[in-house]
Every structure is written in structure tokens, then in C-alpha cells.
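Example 3.
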Amino acid sequence: MSHHGLFISFEGIDGAGKSTHIDSLANAFRSEGQVVTLTREPGGTFLAEKLRSLVLEQAMDPLTESLLIFAARRDHVVRVIAPALLRGEVVLCDRFSDATFAYQGAGRGFDLDVLATLERWVQADEGLLGDPAGNQPMKPEVETVIEPDLTIWFDLPPEDAALRLAGSRIPDRFESQPVEFFRRVAQGYAERQRDHVERIAQIDASQARDVVWQCVLQTVVEKGWLQATAQS
Ligand code: TYD
């Protein structure tokens, strides 16, 4: 799919503090006249939000969990992300596939090769826009995938994240995991970053909030996608 939009995803373990920065970045793009699609995973469509509730609330094995998350992603990519990119919009997505490799792969121990296969199928960039109703055949042999142009990884030690999360609200299935789980997830993100150094920018999320915001802004400005004067 050739498009002239911009796709940025945001990653990190629970408690890393990405939400406010995603909103600030959306404001920065809008203040420069860009149209922003602000979305999240799992979720972003009617169907995907229903799948999100199931994944965050119901006990299930890692394969079921991975399949539901990729099912949600497929609907989201077909109905929201790909069309927005074709319209030339800036798509800001709170989590995307790196989260699946970190949480289901490293965290749950699910097979990374199977996840990579699912990723190729779900994010295959041909035929995505043809027919969301599903009346056109897919082309499973396609090689290229839709993936973020940039991923901002909020890197925070699991112990710090646990402190930030403590008492904030009723934890979901992931937030209630022990700190060892988040150590594996953090390790998963680190490995993913090593394998995709060009795409994934690592930000030290243990710094003060305004310092983290300056890092986020600088990362996007250095790409030439925002003016250096952009404010939140
Ligand atoms: P999160 O962004 O933390 O939402 P909120 O801030 O509202 O809690 O995402 C929800 C959870 O889903 C998070 O704990 C990580 C998990 N998740 C996966 O396990 N795999 C995935 O592929 C994605 C996208 C999310």
C-alpha cells in the first residue's frame, strides 16, 4: 500500500506513562494543521473494543489470547489505520504489534515464530482496503506489512512501573501480573528494539514527565515531521 500518511505507535509496560504524551503529540500535530487519528490496541473499532474487553477480563490460554489480539488488530488495520494513512492522516496508536511480541511472546512465552506468521497475515498490506465486509479473497502470499513508521518505546524498570500502578485503579488481567511478568515483557521490548533499531526509539521513562515529553517531541522533530517550535 503506498500512502502519504504517518503511522506512529507507542509502547511500554503497564505504568510506563505513555497516555499523556500521546495526547500531547496529537495536539502538536493538530496545531500544525495535520489531521490526527488517535487510536489504541487492542481496540479502535466496535469489534476490536469488544475483543479488548474479553482479552482484558477473561482467563484464556496464550494462543487464544494471541488470536483474539490479532483478530482485533486485523479489524483495526482494515477499517481505521489503513484508510487514515491513505487519506494522508497522522495515525497515533497506543500500542501495536510490538506489544504482542513483548506481552504474549516474552511475557506469556508464546512462540515468536507463530506471532511473526500471524503478523504477516494480519498486517499484509494488499487487499486491505478492498472490502472490509470480507467478500473479496485475501492474498496470503503478500510479503509487505503495514507497520509503524516510528515506535516510541517508554522504557521504565518494572519495579518503578509497579509503584506507579499501585492503588491507581482496579487492575485488569495484565496489570495484576507479578513484577516477574513485567521483567520478561520489558526484556521482550528490549529485544524487539535491538531487532528494529531504525524504527523503535527508546525513551527513558523514569525521567520527570516534562523531560520525557521533550524527548518524545525531539524524536518526532528530528524525523522532520514537526517543527522544532511545537508545544504540547
Ligand atoms: P493499555 O495501553 O495498558 O491500556 P490501559 O492504559 O487502558 O490499561 O493496554 C491494555 C493491555 O493490553 C496492556 O496491559 C497490554 C495488553 N496488550 C497485550 O497483551 N498485547 C497486545 O498486543 C496489546 C496491543 C496489548
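Strands lie at 6-11, 36-40, 90-94, 150-155, 200-204. The mean pLDDT is 92.
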